[in-house]
Design brief:
This protein is mainly β. Helices cover about 10% and strands about 50% of the residues. The chain has 1 helix and 16 strands. A hairpin with a 5-residue loop joins strand 13 and strand 14 (about 195-200).
């Protein structure tokens, strides 16, 4: 009986430790008090109106972030399950929220994407190592809800720049010449040309994200974010 009592106590202790570990790892706004990272905030939602942005209860952008606007990188405490909230300008009404997992010293960009019930918060890690040899460093992000979930991207000559990208993901970095980049968005399965765009004023040594989304009238549009 004494042996059984010892086992019961051990199992109880183990169960308590497991619950404590789970609670610690699963709680929201698990902030690292000694860590910091850098976050750029972008409004990529054409119908949301101007926004503010709050991370883990701290206001990083107080308002006035309109569609296509991007904040500078803002230094903030790092951590896991940090709650990011885009709020309608001048109110406490949350337009979209999501969790941000980050780490010390990294650079990330958080986007408000989609509209209405499809509004969402998406975060991507940025590599701010500048390109050399006179090149431009770019990556694409697929935020369109009207386009197919999987697409490819070709340049103006018809050569593939990105052979596959899914909705809410990025392409990884590519290197292109400065000036104007002409691209075609192609359905991965249908092979249809969904839209052709000219991205102008790409400068050597700079880093851009080119994200495509749906305009307020539903047509496909492409916008750019400068990172350095």
């Amino acid at each position: 009986m004494k042996s059984n009592s010892i086992y019961i106590k051990l199992f109880t202790l183990a169960g308590g430790l497991l619950l404590a570990i789970c609670f610690s790892s699963c709680k929201k706004n698990n902030i690292d008090p000694s860590g910091q990272f850098n976050l750029k905030v972008v409004n990529a939602s054409p119908t949301a109106g101007p926004q503010s942005f709050t991370l883990a209860g701290t206001v990083l952008v107080s308002g006035g972030l309109n569609y296509t606007d991007a904040s500078p990188y803002i230094t903030s405490p790092s951590g896991t399950r940090l709650v990011g909230e885009f709020k309608n300008d001048g109110t406490n009404n949350v337009y979209a929220s999501g969790e941000i997992w980050t780490a010390n010293t990294i650079n990330q960009t958080v986007y408000l994407a989609g509209s209405g019930s499809k509004a969402r918060v998406k975060v991507f890690t940025d590599d701010l190592g500048a390109p050399n040899n006179g090149k431009v460093k770019i990556k694409f992000i697929h935020f369109s809800d009207n386009a197919p979930s999987d697409i490819k991207i070709r340049n103006g000559a018809g050569d593939e720049i990105v052979d596959h990208i899914s909705r809410n993901t990025d392409s990884g970095y590519k290197y292109v010449d400065p000036g104007t980049l002409s691209v075609q968005i192609i359905g991965f399965t249908s092979k249809d040309n969904l839209g052709s765009f000219d991205i102008t004023d790409l400068q050597a040594g700079k880093i851009y994200t080119l994200y495509f989304t749906d305009s307020a009238n539903g047509s496909l549009v492409m916008n750019k974010v400068l990172h350095n």
